[in-house]
Amino acid sequence: MKKTAIILGASGLTGGLLLEKLIDDDRYDTIKLFSRSRIEGLPNKVHQHIGNLLELDQFEKEFTADEVYCCIGTTAKKTPDKKRYKDIDYGIPVAAAKLAKENGISTYLVVSAMGANKKSKVFYNRTKGEMEQDVFNQGIPNTSILRPSLIGGERDEQRMLEKIVLVVFKAIQPLFFGPLKKYKIINAETIAQAMVNLANTKSNSDVIITSNDIEQLAKRNLK
Q: Ranges for the NAD(P)-binding domain (predicted)?
């Protein structure tokens, strides 16, 4: 039987690559996007639901699928207000997990970040850690949280500081081996592929995957 997938954050780098993969994947005949704005030029298998994701409950009836992929995330530069930042990076993934639980969706995958820790003194890390905890608290049978390191890939928007950091990190990549492998730059396409592979490997458990393990998961051929 063909499957239905939900994507939150399809307009972003990782979410966009994930969308491309699911469109090309014949295991899926329906892909539901929930976003603030419409993406043009998509095939008929993609159904777009446009609205305010900070009020995700408005989509309760439409929020049905076999799997949910949450690639939502913002940056301190784009969202300097900490309350709004938390509304996005914590609020949307947790609200989506609650809807998934209520609607009987058994697989939930969300992109978090390396360093996520609910007890951290760093606001960003603490927000991600609190999000992870409350996603797990929903008790969805197959819940996967991916903690990538610095994400590489071509973005539409220009982030000069991020570009500089990526250049520096690329130069020192050979130094990241052994326990340091998880700090290597990881490509957004690799994250997207790992998510698809995870969704099609039923584990019936809660898992947290770091960057080096994301790389290995992406290499699996499950078809």
A: 9-139
pLDDT at 40 over 90: yes
Given a cut of 90, whether residue 77 has pLDDT beyond it is no
- The reported pLDDT for the residue numbered 133 is 97
For residue 122, give every residue at least 6 positions away whose Cβ sits within 8 Å of its Cβ, in sequence order, or none: 115
Q: Give the domain ranges of the chain.
A: 3-218
Full DSSP string of 196-216: HHHHTS---SEEEEEHHHHHH
CATH 3.40.630.10 fits 3-218, yes or no: no
| DSSP code per residue over 72-140 | ----TTT---HHHHHIIIIIHHHHHHHHHHHTT--EEEEE--TT--TT-SSHHHHHHHHHHHHHHTT--
Amino acid at 177: F
Instruction: State how far Cα 150 lies from the chain centre.
Output: 14
pLDDT exceeding 90 applies to what percent of the chain? 71
Burial annotation 109-128 (CB, 10 A radius, 16+ → b, else e): bbbbbbebeeeeeeebbbbb
